[in-house]
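=== RUN LOG ===
request id: a7f3
mode: sequence -> structure
chains: 1
length: 259
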Amino acid sequence: MRTHVAFAALAGLALLVAYPAFAQPGDELKTLRKEVEALRDGQATILKELRELRGLLQERQAARPPELQNVVLSTDGAPFMGDPNAKVILVEFSDYHCPYCARHSSQTLPQIVTEYVKTGKVKYVFRDFPIESLHPRAFKVHESAYCAGDQGKYWKMHGRLFANRNLQAGPKELADEAQAVGLDLPSFQQCLDSGKHAARIRTALADGQRAGVSGTPSFFLGATEPNDSRVKALRRLVGAMPYASFKEAIDGLLSSQKQ
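=== RESULT ===
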């Protein structure tokens, strides 16, 4: 009897040595999990590299924009920031209800203003381009900025409209924004109801379409001439590009102006 027990024990030990999976049934699962984690890490690395490549491609496209043929923009009466006699001008065609425009306004434009506009190197001009087929209420929102401008608070309202972008903004919401910036509400509402600034927005839309603008935000860089509200566009950038793209394009144009 003892012989049989000993033999059975030896046989079992042999099986455990020859087939470790029987000894540790969780090893295969652990190995499989490690392989899945390795695949997941590899996939994350590939996605990161693809994003970096896409960013580099966008920057190169911005740094080497296609030559513009006979694109002349008017800035007459358009809101602007910076030295009116700055040698370089940056014109933005934008839509208050465009999420990419809002991103540019909050993330990239402040850097451009600090580095170039406040230092007198660049004049920044805002042109209205509400795309009504996508944002039906955007046109009235653009009017509201000019109604605020009638009370000396265009840029304050401008900033709030981007910061509080709301695709369903109606009369009540615009009145709330007007009140938040300290406007006289009856005057503001009268201006908005009259549509007194609608024509200038239609003009900006037409100018943008002639320049080939089909989406927002779209930017044009050009050189200014004394006593001339027109600017010949020399560079174009499209979309919520990173600050580095604007810096390279602006620095290149500033350098050419010194020659």
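=== NOTES ===
The mean pLDDT is 84.
The radius of gyration is 30 Å.
=== END ===
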